[in-house]
């Protein structure tokens, strides 16, 4: 248990206060949600309607695409807490 807790604190310290705990459409962000927002915008620009069409080089990009498919009214400029993407 102590090892797990220490690892979580270490990970949060690496991400910094601006990125720790951020989510986009329920998916955890590791880059200020930039990749998630990019996947969302990509899907939005192509009017993607099925998760099977969500493909990309990163899991975050694909997750962002999935968010668009499930919630096309999600705001791509903010994370789930309403904070600006990338900060």
Helix-strand sequence: HEEHH
Kindly state the mean pLDDT as a whole number? 84
Number of strands: 2
Count of DSSP-assigned helices: 3
Write out the strand line-up for the largest beta sheet, numbering strands in chain order: 1-2
What is the terminal-to-terminal distance?
Answer: 31 Å
Low-confidence stretches: 1-19
| Rg value | 14 Å
Tell me briefly what this model is.
This protein is mainly alpha-helical. The chain has helices spanning 2-15, 34-46, 59-70; strands at 23-24, 27-28.
Characterize the structure shown:
The structure is a single chain. By secondary structure, this protein is mainly alpha-helical. It has one domain. Helix content is 45%, strand content 5%. A two-stranded antiparallel ribbon has the order 1-2. A hairpin with a 2-residue loop joins strand 1 and strand 2. The chain is globular, with a radius of gyration of 14 Å. The N terminus is likely disordered.
Feature tags:
single chain; mainly alpha; two-stranded antiparallel ribbon; 3 helices; 2 strands; 45% helix; disordered N terminus
Topology readout:
Blueprint: H1 2-15, E1 23-24, E2 27-28, H2 34-46, H3 59-70
Antiparallel strand pairs: 1-2
